[in-house]
Amino acid sequence: MRRYERPVFSLLYRMVRDRALAEDLAQETFIKVLNGIKSYRPEFKFSSWIFKIANNAAIDHLRRKSLDTLSLDGSPAAETPEQMRATAPQLGDRAETPLQHVENRELGTAIERAIARLRPEYRACILLRHVEGYSYDEIAETLDLPLGTVKTYIHRARNELRGYLEDRRE
Amino acid sequence: MTNPEQQHLTTEEIELWAQGLLGAARAIHLADCTLCREEAGRERKIILELVQLPQFAPTAGFADRVMSRVKIPTPSGDWEGR
Asked: Which residues of chain B are modeled with pLDDT < 70?
């Protein structure tokens, strides 16, 4: 398990950009892998199987998150303007926590911020390709995508990254 | 049929070139082809930034926390938590 600890955590961390959440998802991934080891099919590369489970966990989380709309009007249970104000999220008045400081240091570089702007599907492809060194075939197998789609996603992802980085420099 | 040496570089070949791994025959095409050189030049910087991205580690004790929640098969074929 230690062999895959860092790669899996790194993928999830870059997918969700939250250390604690990435660790929860990584734990969930390894528990699924170890408890479901009997369902592993040897014709499938073992690391691809792990990354498939990890990526699914990240994508599920990102989909759920996109459904959770944050209301600036406060709790849905609030009935009066005072209750709405009292339960509304306070923006911009929180000091950075130590964990946020670590996250900003680790994921605050221009290239990491540019990766964060990519669609999750592009992000997963580009991370498996360039951070994990996966072949295009392996990425297709891991993400259940046609090979041509993987090639297109990687090409588009790099074009977008270049665009984001050029925007920043201008 | 098109001579393979005259075909433009694929996305994968541009990646290989950016990392200094492109074979000699294709490198000759790259040297002669303005289109490929322009595309490869554009891709190179971003590819080099991507391949240098670091890996991150979870907090200490991560593996132990996972193993404490995994069911281990017993000799009788049952499962037990650790």
From this structure: 1-5, 73-82
Nearest to A130 among B47, B56, B70 (CB): B47
Instruction: Tell me if residue A18 falls in helix, strand or coil.
Output: coil
Residue of A50, A45, A44 whose CA lies nearest to A5? A50
3-state helix, strand, coil in chain B (%, to 5): 55, 5, 40
With contact defined as beta carbons under 8 Å apart, do A139 and B19 qualify? no
A113 touches chain B (CB under 8 A): no
d(CA A134, CA A124): 11
Q: Confirm whether pTM is higher than 0.90.
A: no
Rounded alpha-carbon distances, angstroms, from residue B5 to A40, B13, B32: 42, 12, 10
Cα–Cα distance, A8 to A22 (Å, whole number): 9
Dig out the tokens for B62 from the structure.
């991560």
Neighbours of B48 (CB within 10 A): 12
Give how far A72 is from chain B: nearest CA, Å: 33
Quick check: A130 contacting B, CB < 8 Å? yes
| Residue A109 CA neighbour count, 13 Å, CB half | 10
Interchain proximity B56–A155, CB inside 8 Å: no
pLDDT of A105: 81
Nearest Cα to A28, choosing from A41, A17, A12?
A: A12
Nearest to B59 among A23, A130, A154 (CB): A23
In angstroms, rounded to a whole number, what is the distance separating the alpha carbons of residues A110 and A116?
10
